[in-house]
From TrEMBL:
Ranges for domain Glycosyltransferase 2-like prokaryotic type: 5-242
One Pfam family in the UniProt entry: Glyco_tranf_2_2
Protein species of origin: Dulcicalothrix desertica PCC 7102
SUPFAM superfamilies named in the record: Nucleotide-diphospho-sugar transferases (SSF53448)
Superkingdom per UniProt: Bacteria
An example Gene Ontology molecular-function term: transferase activity
The UniProt record lists the keyword Lipoprotein: no
InterPro entries with a match to the protein in the record: Glycosyltransf_2, GlycosylTrfase-like_prok, Nucleotide-diphossugar_trans
Transferase keyword on record: yes
Entry keyword set: Transferase
Protein name: Glycosyl transferase
Length: 304
């Protein structure tokens, strides 16, 4: 039995899927299975996958049902005591799985291991700082006010956790990973590997529509989490909502830089501050405010 099942949802990713698979094949932990769920791709994704010669690779094709369902289908085929996910355009450092497995073995009360993230542009030429959180143990309150896991390509979970928590919510069109981590964090401890091991690919395509969808589903996920959260966490709700609009401001300023994006960023930052004024005391918000002022000046956006 392999030690880790790696699940790769794949939809129309012909330009990146091979690079992603290679980063999995290059893991220092060799005893793994790679389960690619071809989610109804209409480009050459499947043809590219069929060129890979690796006995650890399983390719399963289905009609398109979206990312959460693809992950769930992968879980159904997984045979290992540990399970990890990676999106078809992201990459891993070679020691990602090895160090995460070791961390879970040395922390028997933990059910989830996560690492730090760095970002790269769509062409894979330029790299930028990512999320580097160090929360461990009971992280539920931390996750309510910030999705510090940062992407669906990060965590390693025990099979016991997945069996207890269940499937990804297939009704969510975005933020299904944050929803899942929140559900896990209510009952399980997390452990961190303080090292950049997840390389998250940034894409700016149709960012305005993506931001609208992300706003809708992030608010939905957060509302659901607080509806189910104990009373002692309720005071964090506005801070969690503020985080969402801070995050959307960041997306507007870094991945869509036209005048419309600057206007949207302005509105989102004001929403973030109004919901939780103390966010002005954080370095992250202060940096966003400076970037926004510069963007407003460059794009001649009115301050009124």
């Amino acid at each position: 039995m392999p030690i880790v099942s790696v699940i790769v949802p794949a939809y129309n990713c012909e330009s990146t899927i091979i690079e992603t698979i290679v980063s999995i094949q290059n893991q220092t932990l060799f005893d793994i299975e790679i389960i690619v769920i071809n989610d109804g791709s209409t480009d050459n994704t499947l043809d590219r996958l069929m060129t890979i010669q690796d006995k650890r690779l399983k390719i399963l094709s289905y009609e398109n049902r979206g990312l959460p369902t693809a992950r769930n289908r992968g879980i159904a085929h997984a045979t290992s005591p540990y399970i990890s996910f990676i999106d078809a355009d992201d990459l891993w450092a070679p020691d990602k799985l090895e160090l995460q497995v070791a961390a879970l073995k040395s922390h028997p009360n933990a059910g989830v291991a996560y690492s730090w993230t760095i970002c790269m542009d769509n062409e894979g030429k330029n790299f930028y700082p990512g999320v580097q959180a160090s929360y461990q143990g009971n992280v539920f309150s931390n996750l309510l006010v910030c999705n510090f896991i940062a992407s669906g390509s990060n965590v390693l979970l025990t099979r016991q956790v997945i069996d207890a928590v269940g499937e990804f919510d297939s009704t969510l069109k975005s933020c299904e990973d944050w929803d899942y981590w929140l559900r896990v964090a209510r009952s399980w401890e997390f452990v961190v590997i303080p090292k950049p091991q997840i390389i998250y690919r940034l894409s700016s395509g149709a960012m305005s529509s993506k931001i609208d969808v992300m706003e809708k589903y992030q608010l939905l996920v957060l509302e659901k989490a607080f509806t189910e959260a104990p009373k002692e966490y309720q005071h964090l709700k506005k801070q969690g909502q503020s985080y969402i609009y801070q995050f959307l401001t960041h997306l507007c300023l870094t991945r869509a830089k036209n005048k419309g994006a600057v206007l949207t960023a302005t509105k989102n930052l004001w929403k973030s501050i109004n919901l939780y004024p103390k966010t002005l005391l954080t370095l992250k918000t202060q940096k966003l405010a400076i970037k926004l002022l510069i963007a407003q000046t460059r794009n001649r956006v009115s301050f009124r």
